[in-house]
Structures are given as C-alpha cells and as structure tokens.
C-alpha cells in the first residue's frame, strides 16, 4: 500500500500529514500539491473545519489551554485507489472536494483525528458513493480526518500531544495517530477469521462461565446451567457466535425477565407478573387497539382520511382509507451515557425502524424525545441546590450529555425526515435518606427517550404467513464492527462491566441510509395488496443474531443463512462479529420467492443496498453456513435459543417509608419563584426544540412552540391524517419521576394523569380514546426498588388505567438504572428513582378544536383554575423542595379518579363550543408557573387572585408551588355561567376558581384581598425562565447568536409574528381541468417530496415522483415536464456540503448535465428549488441562464440546525412564483443548517440591483433583517430566496410547501381559513403554465 499526500508544507521540513495520522511537527512549514507515499492511498487537504468561536470553545476544554496558541482545524481527505490517478482525475477530485492547493501553517505542533480503525464512518459511506456515481472508478473508498495544529511556548512531548488529542477526539468513535507508518491502517483489510469453539466438553461448565466474562454476555447462573445442560444433549461444543446470540436474545433488554418474573410479597406468591398487570389494561379495554404486545409497535384504529402518496405509476394521488396509527416509545440509555451524540442518534433511529417494520410495513410520521440527567452544573450558572459533582470517567457527565445527545437525536430525525414535535427534559440529583441511609439519587445513567407515531394501511396490520422456501433479505447498510453486545451491555448498570465492551456496544448512525430503506418500504406498502413483504423485523439490539432468529421462529419453521452473503464492510470480522454486530439502518425481511425481482427493482431505484442471505427451511433448526471455512458457526435448534430458561423470581417485604415533611415556613415566595423558573426541569426548553425540524412532512398541526412569540409551552403535539379533512393524531408525555423515591404508586398514577391533562386540550372525545406507552426505568435490585416497581405497576395496571378504561398496549423497561464506580478507595453509587415515562396517543376527529397555553389578549376574559387535587397541596418531590434539597414529604396523588372521565368530556364539549380560549395544565413548578407560562406566550400581565385558594396567609408557597393535578383555562367572562354549568356534571364544581384577570402592566401580581403581596415584571421572569437555554446555547452554539436570541426572548415589547398581505388568500380554488406534469425531483436523502407534491397537486398539477436514478436510467426526460421542483432534505447526508453531492452527480455526468441544461434553457417551463433543492440548484448556476452572481449556501452563523417559524418579506422580482405578492410579509417555516449566503456585501448589492433578491427574512415590523433569530442563518440583507433574470427559476431556503394550509402553522391569524397565503405561490406557477 502507498499513500499520496497533499503537501501542506514546503519541502525540506520533516513533518507530513497522512491519512488521519496524528502528526507531530516541530517548526512552521508549508506544503503544496501532492506527495506520493504509496501507490494506493492519497491524502488531500480540505476546507477549514471550525469557526473562531468553535475553536475558542474547544480550547476552553483543554488541559493546557493557557499554553496553546493559534489552534486551527481543517479537513483532510484520505482516498484508497484501485489504479493510478491521472492529472485530470486529480483536478476533478480537488474540485469536488473544494480543496485548496496550498495550506499555510505557522504552528509548532499538529495532529489528526480519524474514525476509529476498523470502522467506516457514515461520511465515508456517502462520500464514496457520490464519487463512484460520478464515474470515479479509480476510487475504492474515501475517508475524512480532522487536522489540528497549534503553537506553544512549551515543548510538547509525544505523550503530551496524544493526551491533548484525546481531549478533542471522541474515544468511542475516533482514533488519533502519531506515526506516519500507521496511516496504512485506515484502509487495511484483514483476513476473515474462523468461528471460535468454546471447549465445554474439555473444561466443563467453567468454559461457559469464562466466555460469559470474556464476551460480556451478562448471563446469570441459571442461564449458564441451562446452556450447559442443553449443549450436553447436543453432544457439541457451543461456539462464541451461538453464545453471543443466546445472550442477546435472552438479555434483560430483549426478554424483559423482571417484567415476566414471578413475585412473592411477604413470602406470599402473587398471581400476576408485572407484564400480566400491564396486559390487564388491554384485556379489559381492547377497543381501538388493532395490535398489542406482538409486533415492533402497537397499532391503534384511526379515522378515515385521504393519504397522499405516489402510486405504482409514480404519480401522486390521494387515496381514502382508514389511517391507522402505529405507536412506539423506546429508550437508549446506556449508549447515550457512553457516547451521547451517537447513543441518542441511534436511539431515535432504532425507534423509527420499529415503526417502519410494524405489520408488513408502515410509515413513521412524527417523533418525540426526552432526557433525564443528573444536575447540569452549567459553568456560568452555579445553583445552590447542585451538590458537588462526582462522575465515573467512562461515561459522559450530565452537561456533556445535554450538550451533545439532543443534537444527536435531532440530527437523526432531521436527516431521516421525521419531525420531532414533543419532548420532556428533567434534571434531578439529590442526596437523602428515605429509610435506607444516605444515598445519592439521580441520572448519571441518563434516560434517553425516543418515540413517535406512524401510519399503516388496514390490510398491513398483521404479518403474513411465511411459507417454506421464502427468501430472507437484509435491507440496508453493511455489517461493521460496531455496537457489539448492546443488548447485554444495556442490561448492566453503568460503570460495571468492561470498558472495551462498553465502547463496542455503541452503534454509529447513518440516517440517510435509513431514509433510503424507508423509501423502499414505502414503495412496498404503497403496492397495497401486492406488497412483496411477508414479514419484516428491524435490526437492533443483538444485530442479525436477534432479528433473523425471531423472524424465523415466528414463521414456524427453520432457516438456513449464508453468512458470507451478508453485506460486510470489514472482512476481518469473525463469524460471531458478522452475526451479532449492531450496525444500524438494517431490516430483515421475508419475501416470497416470486416477488424478489419487484423488491430488487425498488431497491435499485432508491440506491438502497440489499442481499438475499438465506431462506426458510423445514423444521426448527437455525443453520448459519460459512462458505469461507466450510463450517457452521451456528447450528442450533430454535427451541434451545428461545426455550424457557428458568423463570426469574423476585420478592420483597413491604416497608413503610418515613416521608417526613416539607417545611418552607421560613421562605418567601419572592425569593423561591425565580429559582423555580430557573430549574432546568421548569425552564424554557428552547435550546432543545429549535435544533429539530418540526415541519417536515407538512402534516404537523401543533409543535412545541406557541403563539406569535413562539414560546415553548405546548402541552401536546398534533399531526394531521392527511392534507385534506380534519382528523389527526395527538401525543403527550407525563412523568414526575423524583416523586417515586417517596411514593412510587402515587407517582405512577400521577404520570398517567399528567399525560391526560396534557393531551386533553388537543380535542380528544373520551378518556378511553387515549392509549399509553409505559416506559419503566429503575434499579429494582437497590434499596426499595422491587417494592417501588411492583406497587407502581400494580397502581396503574390493576387500578387507575382500568378505572379510566385506558389501555397500555406498548412499552419498554430498562431496569439497570444505577451507576457504580470507584473514586480512589471509595465505592460510589448513584441510583435513579423508579422512573415511569408515560407517552399518550389518541386519534382526533377534528384537529381544529385544539387550543394552546397562549393567553388571548382581549377584553373581559378571566382565568379559571380547576383544582383536580380537590384542595390537596402536597409538596413532596416538587421543584420547590428540590431547590431547597428537601427529599421528604407526601407527594401528589390522583384525587379525581371518578371525576376525570367526565372532566375530559366536558373539556371536549367546551372546545367544540369554542368557549375555551387557552389551556395549560399544572405540573412542574406549580400553579404560579402554569399561569406565568401562559402569560409568556401571550406577552400579557396577569393579576393572580389568591383569596379562594389560600387557606391562611402563610399558605402562599404551598398553594402556588405545589405540583398537584390541575388545569387553568381562559374563558370569556360572559361565558362563565355556561362553562360552570358544563363542569357541574363533573363533580368538580366546588374546586373551580377564578384565579386571574389580565393586566396591561406586563406584570405577574399576586393579589390577596385588595393587596398586592408580590409582583414580578414579565421581563424579569422571562430572564429567569430563559437563562438555562441561553447558557446551554452559549456553550453549544455561537455565543453571539445565543445572546441575540436571549435578548429577543425576554423582549416583552417585541411585536411577534405580524403577517401583512397585499393579496387575498384564496378560499375556493377554481382550477383548469388540465393538469400539467410536474417533476417532483429527489435524490437519495431527500425527504420533503410528499408535501411538495401535495402543494403543487392542490394547485392543479399532476405530480410525478422522479428519482435521479429515473433520469440516469432514462425512465423520464426532464423536458417531458412543464415544471421541476428540487425538494428539501439531506441529499447524501450533505457530506460534500449542502447539496454538494446532488449537484456533483449532475455536473459530472454528461448526459444528466445536458438534460438539466436543456431544461433550464426551455422558456416554456419553470424550476423551483427549496432548501436542499435550493442549495443544489445554486451549485448548478453555470447551467442556468441569468443566474450571474448566485451564491452558494453555507453554515448558519449560529452553527446549528435552525427550525423556526419566521417572517419573510417578498421583494419586487421577475420570479413567476411571487407574481402579485410583492410587499407581503408572510410567516413561513425554515429548517436548515446551511442557509447562509456565501455572497459578499458587494455581491448582495448586485443581486438586489438586478432584482434577483426575491425574498428576505423580516423583522417584526416587516423589514428585511440580518438580526438573529428573525434571520435564522445570518444571510446578508436577510436574503432568503433568489431568482434568475427570466424569473423562471426560483430558489429559496424556507419551505412554502409546509405553509400552504393554515393548520400547518404553529401560529396563524384566526381569520385564515383552509389555505395559508403561500397557496398563491403555487397557484402562480399553475397560472404561468397556462
């Protein structure tokens, strides 16, 4: 092997930068052009990687930061070649990779960080594919590294540099190299390895015991004996592949041993397991549930609506059918503790696959995510309640988790194209004695919640029969040595086990590959009764070793697998590693042998890898054949693999906890409330929300942000069933986990009830419409863990849910939530509370009924407080207790068991009658927080009337800061009598009070009698409430934009979104019967094509789904269409810059290039590029007449993905899309990470003078702005869209296709009817064709 290296330094100096090696140089040097190291590998310098503020941020975290100067970072590309590289090809590579021939470095020291040896990064997979698609047949693979250089007055030794590099590299996914000779290892391939026999017949049962430790199998003693006895009967030694497969299939993670265990309480055998009690809810109330406990997700009945998708002729059409609902919520706690970004990303990705693999194929639609961590300890926000930090080095600390994990989760959802529209965040860590001595409680092992809902066709709910001879297919990416033993690792407490096994258990993410897989699944389910899928299973924990046996077992037959047919990127893996690795973005599918060709056609069109790896056989034997060594690494009966090892048994002696009391008599509410608002659990979650695309699909009717000021206080989320009709789906979350330390049963009931009060304002009809996912986390082997778990499950499985006729058809448990480690000579431990996270789902008949917490500013309204706790004011577990480090007291419980069903019906009736103006539930932070958040959303002051809720003058804190169940609604005063009559039937009439009226002083006043006993300015409270988000964004994002947003968020005089129209919104569309053909163009990774087609379809076009492979294969010609739209998404994962891969494939394919050029020259057609399509078309400006001066689109100034509802002002321009719209100021969603124009000030002036600046981000007054966040990306002159001289080609970063219907806005004026103003944008295109 040899390496060609782009010389970054002048000849004569001794240091070279090669292939991700950590290079060490002593003096300033300059390299140019290329230096040949070997004949098959080259290295090329790319662009500068990090901005100045990002460099400064990195430097702050370095051990020797005071001795480090001029820290810089750039990208380095390493290419493995199959033949000699010509000068033409080299120039082509430099152009595609945006390389510069010279790199000047005035630094003394340097090193490079690369992906871990033996792995292939997602970047590499996609970049290699782009270059191969461009005809670069000389390339085997490309990889990317990050080259760092710095100066110092100190003499850094090799070990010092390695230590420094280790601080900048992710130890889970990256390596650093110090020696040039190591560079060959990046692309080195190893010889295949043979399966390992475990010498059981030679060493007896101890051989299995040793393998259990060596491989990290987490088998218990009973399971080891079970295996020993069964292998004795087979007269064959087990293999490492078989043992690892057994361990994954029978791990706590996969088999839920505790939930299926038998229980003894006070030595009395209990009749039901925990799972039996959960199933009880379904047994009693199965209505509305189509599938429970037997698939990757549960399926609920939905309303009939029109689903919009391309049919077999690729033309988008609406089809009326029951839109049934797929629901699933997962956790990914252990991987997120080890590697926060990847752990959370693959957590979201795995849950998405669960939805897609339900039935015989479903469509993921909308997501949720959540996090629980210990105290954040934000450097610039030291809080009195945060105890001194102690965390094991092998896991990330809470601050690191919350800076990285939410980005990982959001990034996967964004790139896959699933809107994340719901979530929760809790920070909790306390020391206390709850009867077992002083312990530390918290979430050092975090909770990472990932869930959502999707839709499925009625005839695809059940898996099909899988006959003998059916083919077994792996769909998705290749096997790689990542995520090995994740099921077992997740079954251990964090801090136990082996460090290398922890690292091995973390997966890596490739959302663009998962998107391709989903596109194939979409093609399958869109075939209806001709769907080629018989059975589908996602590949998650345990990899193929779990997915394939489960599928084969469920078929009722056996299976034969050809190991070497499994797509494999690492030939050096052993059979165990090939079989058991957890490479993500894969599915195992059973397909009838007669439909394999159709399935292959779908895969080839989507460029989605797949392989037929085996078939279903007669009997119950699972055989995995290795042609490399002509043996069987797996030869095991499924009866042994899925047999019944001895059932777990658990027991406890009940103990009454001495709860003590919460005494806050010496405190003042004026001092406590700002701290309550500043607690991360209560504070604004904005930093977790705007990083996630919440509008992709065009089917989102309610996300987290509320009102003209886009305040993050929504109680629930709502998605629409389709682009027509009123039906949809709602989701909410309920959790109060710290309370469980004091009363687990009450906390479980409270969590269910909170999910109800959160979802209630979405417009659900009956409480029984709600179905729950119950996710259980805890450490039952610690303290009172067994008792807490049993009593909590019993409380809702046998008590509250049956009482309310609510079913729990899906859930998950993760019961290893303790973190143990050694600090010096001391053993340390942090134990999580029993943590029940409830996610509620419900079908909605009319999504227009929903209201938000935004107070509507109008004359003669009032706030009603419905006290569902009937006067109880318990403070145990509350935020006000936490900020005072009081772990004691009675906790809230559900006091309205009988009244709640009628209360739900009453709220629905009032919503239908439009008598509720706004709604918010009482939760973390208490009633005062509830009302304050409503005031924040409405930018209005409130006088809180205390007379009827105070029992005495010292009761203010208890009354306003308890976290019992309750609801506050805003009503017109004139409707008060009719509203109270409705509530009369609920039995709650005596617990409803007028709690507030509006004031124009923008103050929150506490009023007792006629006296103001406390008062805060709205801005003062907003500053406290927004502080956590500001500090987190300052650490994670550009601190300048973080400050700008903070100042904007606390500006109580800011006007908010204020649309101004120069035209009338169409109410009824009068369309020509002729429907011109429109090419809805997409490349792999594009995810916004359906909503784009829906918008153009509504405007009168016949929309055709056109993949780039269709053009390459000449299935379509662009000039067959009247118009073309390039849609949003992440083509090739944006690995060569935004839109770079898509544009590169066009520019470097002569036939495609000519086809696009001809289309742009044709004056009878039009082109639109949105978001990723905008970025791509900007890179094709050389083909587009009249596009002189067009910019590229680069990283947002904030350096993060921006998803917001912003305002834009439409400028005078020749754009055919903006005809008769100039001067209008319109809200519109944005969702992008690279939307900033690369143009200079002079170039922007030229664009504007040529009238090519068609659209600009606007401030609240409607003027073009560069101010953040109104301008989300920092483009000069606020430019958001451009056009060419003819106006036939328009590019824009915002998303008009997600704003043509009024329900798509998270806020819009009340007088907008079915359509939003952007409908005219699409109608203008139709008018142009006429």
Oligomer: single chain
For the termini, the CA-CA separation is 62 Å
Shape: globular
Gyration radius (Cα, Å) is: 30 Å
Low-confidence stretches: 1-33, 486-493
Strand content: 15-25%
Task: Write out the strand line-up for the largest beta sheet, numbering strands in chain order.
Answer: 46-45-47-48-55-54-53-50-51
Describe this protein's structure:
- The chain is an alpha+beta fold and 1330 residues long.
- The chain has 38 helices and 55 strands.
- The strands form 12 sheets. A 9-stranded mixed sheet has the order 46-45-47-48-55-54-53-50-51. Strands 2-1-3-4-6-5-7 form a 7-stranded mixed sheet.
- A hairpin with a 4-residue loop joins β25 and β26 (631-637).
- α12 packs parallel to α13 (398-416).
- The protein starts with a strand and ends with a helix.
- The relative contact order is 0.09.
- The model is unreliable at 1-33 and 486-493 (pLDDT under 50).
